[in-house]
User: Which sequence fits this backbone?
């Protein structure tokens, strides 16, 4: 299935999402708001759910996984940028690829790891179609990080975790002041 092209309806829906749900609920970083406006979220979900692409809600993406709520993506991104300009970020849990795409607009190098091969294959196609050539992908267990590319200026864990794996902490600690962001399960 090819990407659904952007159109005025999608642009208006994305603007509404950014203004009313993201900026309207406390996200203030202009770079993050610009990235949320520019990345077409409808390209990161299945066509049958495309009508819900710009609702501020998580949506299923297959394999028992979800694309995160846009506000959460914006909040994690804003926290990652807080107090600096990260040059190299690791994302654990590529999923649909949406969080990596938002980061790719803002950070020179984004490394993303996904354990479910089918999701990673789809995300890679999306990155290619959207010409996001600064995203590097790896099929692996994200709990191990990406040791050969460490250290990172920041790490975003988008996969649900019940604890922070030690291999993820060291690469950030080396790059002080790094950020390690993990959502509450």
Assistant:
């Amino acid at each position: 299935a090819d990407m659904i092209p952007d159109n005025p309806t999608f642009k208006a829906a994305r603007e509404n999402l950014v203004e009313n749900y993201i900026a309207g609920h406390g996200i203030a970083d202009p770079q993050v708001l610009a990235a949320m406006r520019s990345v077409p979220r409808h390209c990161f979900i299945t066509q049958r759910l495309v009508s819900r692409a710009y609702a501020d809600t998580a949506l299923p993406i297959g394999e028992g996984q979800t694309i995160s709520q846009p506000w959460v993506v914006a909040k994690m991104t804003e926290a990652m940028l807080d107090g600096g300009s990260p040059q190299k970020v690791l994302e654990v849990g590529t999923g649909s690829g949406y969080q990596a795409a938002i980061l790719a607009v803002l950070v020179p190098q984004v490394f993303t790891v996904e354990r479910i091969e089918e999701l990673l294959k789809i995300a890679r196609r999306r990155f290619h179609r959207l010409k996001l050539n600064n995203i590097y992908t790896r099929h692996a267990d994200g709990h191990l990080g990406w040791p050969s590319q460490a250290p990172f200026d920041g790490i975003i864990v988008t996969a649900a975790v019940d604890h922070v794996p030690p291999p993820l902490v060291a690469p950030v600690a080396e790059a002080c002041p790094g950020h390690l962001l993990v959502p509450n399960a």
Strands lie at 59-62, 65-67, 88-92, 109-114, 135-139, 154-157, 179-181. Residues 173-177 have pLDDT under 50 and may be disordered. The helical segments are 8-22, 30-38, 70-81, 98-106, 117-129, 166-173.
